[in-house]
Specification:
Order of helices and strands: HHHHHHHHHEHEHEHEHEHH
Oligomer: single chain
CATH class of the largest domain: Alpha Beta
Radius of gyration: 21 Å
Number of domains: 2
Number of helices: 15
CATH superfamily of the largest domain: Glucose-6-phosphate isomerase like protein, domain 1
Helix content: 40-55%
Strand order of the largest sheet: 2-1-3-4-5
Distance between the termini: 51 Å
Amino acid sequence: MNDTNVSSTILDRLAGELSELTPEARKAATYVLENPRDVGVSTVREIAQAAQVKPNTVVRMARQVGFDGYEDFRAPFRDAIRKGAADFPDRARWLQDIRKSGDLGGLYADMVQDALRNIEETFATISAHDLKQAAEAIWSARHVYTLGVGVNNANARNFTYLASTGMTQFHAIPHPGSTAFDDLAWADENDVLIAMTCRPYRSEVVAAAEVAREQGAAIIGISDSPASPLLQAADHGFVVAADTPQFFPSSVSTIALLETLLSFVIAVADDKIVDRVSRFHARRHQLGIYHEGKK
């Protein structure tokens, strides 16, 4: 979700109707889902132009989700703050301009502000109930596959590493020398795939999620828009805010969500999980993995 001032109920409803819309109305809806701040400060013609559709298509989209028209639809968005998103190259050039000017104070402030806001916006749209359902699916699964490529590869592997201190069914994919498709070859209704990708969406992640779903596996999707093709295929979908002045999507909220999800898995697990984590760390101490210092 891009703005906590916008009713998540309306955006959730729009995301749920996405597959039922005509291709043109879907374009309008996708634009709204990805740029909710724009709705409150833009006319129907401006939204239509930005979404590359006709104005009456935007009106039909609004009516599809239960509103009388665009003005009625726009009302909950009026207080949203309009913020345009720059492409990666533009952001990179902007960072270089700041560095040349010697003015890194503004960049520092922007980074901190966006990091805090991303976490707030992410958790404002996620309920404890939704996290509990996803955690229960994970705990009851035979195998849990975590998939992320690019920046999200490290996020997926860190989640798997942490989970593996007390559980054995976690596998970060793709394995070295393999592909996600091969690693999911034997996945079925007993398994869970946790997949993550942000704009621009990685096609191999979306495709792997679709294959796993066809094989019966439950999908937990993490992405930065309700319109993400990954979330459209997910049984449990979570939207993370990833705004940042730098040219890569921010991973702050993704990491925070994964850590929270893992804490829920431990909370819904049976009592043996505590003993397993304790034994895991006791073994590390015995092997001298931790630096004990002088006694």
